[in-house]
């Protein structure tokens, strides 16, 4: 790189996510980035409530009109016909191609136009290869290097994503579980990937006592109560029903325990129905007065500060699990389901407790252990925070990405 060394490199971050941990990770990256060397531009697929946050962090922000009409292929299959397994596979592949041609290709042309307008030197997509096909193709069309920061499990469709991988210079992965899955799902060489843990900001102290007291007062709980929090979107695979059944199993022996289910379904239809089921389950299990469904909250850190235990109950593997790390950062004992990237944060018996997904009995055993031996639980929580500060700091994350940018751009 010759002429580009005379100015800071322009990095375009493409964001198609509406919110959540993947977006927060990019916000932390922009916030800590050495902006004298790397000028960030953020391109949202649609209008987003985080636009002002990114501008305050120093990014130039653009919003893309990504609306595209995609014609369904359902009419190609006669009503009532049940395709064989091989035919079903062919139809699924045809649908993927149809969506790529009708949606991703037009969007990629719009992204390529933005790449040229902002004179980007590097493009970074931030979901996973199968979700970011449009931005990967756009970088190729604009002849600009591309980094895929994979924060979710990608589809196992190498017939689709392997050809596009010629436009991706590097695959940076949020966990080793995601990295292994990218290698398998895209069929890329291992040396083209790198593990880069998600960034977290660790408070100087393990939570605010004042904030914790406010939350407990709001919930009409005192210092004697043991507060067990489950934080996450209300959708079936998050496993809040498993959590409630596990809590019910220990509730009689721990009359001072109180469970919090923190989160909302948003506009997810299955989630709205699931929330109603959870409320019915509370009554069915005889837990009225012992469980609070808080709905959507913005004060998650305060709620965790007020809690004695944080439980992650997902029945499906998660790429990493930001809620778990938020609890660890506040030095709270963690019980989590064993799968995906979770074991990379929690080591069973030394920095927390891992239980099989969907296993309410094992979760109940772990809850009893934490409540019966709070001193041991506190030691594990302290160990978890100490280990996490070394592995998940925001500054380490940003320095790693900057070194990757330097290597790709030849700076």
Summarize the structure in words.
This protein has 411 residues and is an alpha/beta fold. The protein has 2 domains: 3-199 and 393-409, Rossmann fold (3-Layer(aba) Sandwich); 209-391, Rossmann fold (3-Layer(aba) Sandwich), CATH 3.40.50. Helix content is 44%, strand content 15%. The protein contains 14 helices and 13 strands. The protein has helices at residues 21-32, 51-56, 85-117, 133-142, 158-164, 176-186, 209-218, 240-251, 269-284, 300-306, 322-329, 360-372, 374-391, 394-409, and strands at 9-15, 38-44, 60-63, 122-125, 146-150, 170-173, 193-195, 226-231, 257-262, 291-295, 309-311, 334-337, 353-355. The strands form 2 sheets. Strands 3-2-1-4-5-6-7 form a 7-stranded parallel β-sheet, sandwiched between helices. Strands 10-9-8-11-12-13 form a 6-stranded parallel β-sheet, with helices on both faces. α3 (85-117) packs across α4 (133-142). The longest helix is centred in the N-terminal third of the chain and has 33 residues, at 85-117. The protein is globular, with a radius of gyration of 23 Å. Mean pLDDT is 91; it is low at 1-5.
How would the blueprint of this fold be written?
Layout: E1 9-15, H1 21-32, E2 38-44, H2 51-56, E3 60-63, H3 85-117, E4 122-125, H4 133-142, E5 146-150, H5 158-164, E6 170-173, H6 176-186, E7 193-195, H7 209-218, E8 226-231, H8 240-251, E9 257-262, H9 269-284, E10 291-295, H10 300-306, E11 309-311, H11 322-329, E12 334-337, E13 353-355, H12 360-372, H13 374-391, H14 394-409
Parallel strand pairs: 1-2, 1-4, 2-3, 4-5, 5-6, 6-7, 8-9, 8-11, 9-10, 11-12, 12-13
């Amino acid at each position: 790189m010759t002429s580009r060394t005379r100015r800071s490199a322009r990095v375009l971050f493409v964001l198609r996510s509406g919110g959540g941990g993947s977006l927060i990770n990019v916000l932390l990256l922009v916030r800590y980035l050495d902006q004298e060397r790397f000028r960030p531009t953020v391109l949202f697929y649609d209008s987003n409530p985080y636009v002002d946050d990114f501008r305050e962090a120093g990014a130039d922000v653009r919003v893309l009109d990504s609306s595209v009409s995609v014609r369904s292929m359902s009419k190609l299959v006669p009503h009532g016909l049940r395709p064989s397994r091989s035919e079903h596979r062919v139809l699924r592949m045809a649908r993927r191609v149809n969506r790529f041609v009708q949606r991703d290709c037009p969007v990629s042309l719009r992204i390529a136009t933005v790449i040229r307008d902002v004179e980007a030197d590097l493009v970074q997509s931030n979901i996973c290869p199968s979700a970011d096909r449009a931005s990967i193709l756009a970088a190729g069309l604009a002849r600009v290097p591309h980094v895929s920061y994979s924060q979710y499990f990608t589809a196992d469709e190498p017939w689709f994503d392997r050809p596009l991988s010629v436009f991706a210079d590097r695959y940076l992965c949020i966990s080793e579980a995601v990295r292994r899955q990218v290698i398998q799902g895209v069929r890329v060489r291992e040396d083209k990937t790198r593990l880069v843990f998600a960034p977290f900001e660790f408070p100087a102290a393990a939570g605010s006592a004042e904030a914790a007291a406010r939350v407990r007062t709001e919930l009409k709980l005192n210092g004697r109560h043991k507060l067990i929090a489950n934080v996450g979107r209300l959708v079936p695979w998050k496993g809040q029903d498993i959590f409630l059944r596990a809590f019910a199993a220990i509730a009689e022996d721990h009359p001072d325990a109180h469970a919090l289910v923190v989160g909302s379904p948003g506009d997810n239809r299955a989630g709205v129905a699931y929330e109603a089921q959870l409320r019915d389950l509370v009554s069915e299990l005889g837990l009225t007065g012992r469980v609070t469904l808080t709905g959507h909250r913005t004060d998650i850190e305060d709620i965790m500060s007020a809690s004695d235990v944080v439980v992650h109950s997902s029945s499906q593997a998660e790429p990493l699990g930001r809620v778990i790390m938020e609890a660890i950062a506040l030095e709270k004992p963690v019980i989590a389901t064993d799968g995906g990237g979770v074991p990379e944060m929690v080591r069973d018996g030394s920095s927390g407790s891992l239980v099989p997904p969907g296993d309410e009995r094992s979760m109940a055993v772990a809850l009893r252990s934490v409540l019966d031996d709070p001193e041991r639980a506190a030691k594990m929580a302290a160990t978890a925070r100490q280990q996490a500060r070394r592995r998940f700091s925001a500054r380490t994350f940003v320095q790693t990405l900057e070194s990757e940018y330097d290597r790709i751009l030849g700076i």
